[in-house]
Amino acid sequence: MSIASALGLDRPRVRYAVVGAGDITQRAMMPGIEHTGNSTLTAIVTGDPEKARVLADEYKIEHVYGYDQFDALLASGEIDAVYLGTPNWRHAEFAVPALKAGIHVLCEKPLEVSSELCRSIQEAERASTAKLMVAYRLHFEPGTLDAISRIRAGEIGEPLAFTSCFGQMLDPANHRAEHGLAAGPLFDMGPYPINAIRYLFGAEPVAVEHAVATRQPDSGFGDLDDTVAVTLRMPGDRLATFTVSYYLNSIDSLIVAGTKGSIHMSPAFGYGEGIEQNRIVGQKKTHQTFKATDQFGGEMRYFSECILHDREPEPGVEEGLADLRVVEGIVRALETGERQELPPFTRSRRIDPDAQVQTLSGVTPPEDVNASSPSRDEG
Question: What H or E segment, with its residue span, contains residue 221?
């Protein structure tokens, strides 16, 4: 056996372009690509020439493109897949032509800012030989998958209630504070508790019972609702509540409670540190900390395996649509102040905890190039 074979250097690798080089791409996705073992970073697409030059040098990226050259990249033969780290409302803009060109797509959540745009992506995927996966990294995180397995096994009985608080102190200079609802906490942070509600209950919300948004006078955000609180009704008259905010000291937790016990996770949605569980079953209390993993590298490794072995990835377009269905119901409830029934939705596939767990070791994020952390206390 050659040294290259022994080290796994001659294994097939999926060639990726990263599209959009903001904070999440630079700090979380790019550092983990090479240690996936089945993926390699070949190209970068950004509108910032200085950012492109520095990152291309740091990561030995061969091909650099501007956004207006995206079609040329797709036709170049230099890549097999793209990772979309653009703002939420620019996902379809790049996903649809990529899929039409037979290029696989790993798209950050939310899939788009409307179900109509999600369906345009879905139509492009159905007509394509390429695959699309939404980057719900927690679908591969060991502590999250452990909680799902425990609930499915009946450990906490019938799950009846969910509550979550997820907040950060957003820097008013960050672009998220400048693009209204589509970049606000509901679209940016809301998919995390919404997705958690759906995968922990194993069911789809049937109604938005109540939604309220507030603006704190000292936030500095101008015309932006900085905090949103929501109550969802689940099948069987179960309830799920969550609050997301751009004006809270960092908080990241959830509790799912059932007829026999409960699971409290904190952190529940973040990356860079291990997920912690506090469980109560009957009168017995248990604490467990799961080792931090490279959640971004892990999800890419899984997606690349799907590409290399022609398997359909989970989560796919359907998962993105399922969350946008709920987000749009919340928007209607905010606009009308009234309860909103949600259109029927059947999920044909759910998380497989045994097949999806990823345990890549964590990576140290580098310094950002012309990008900064969204949180004012970290920037």
Answer: none
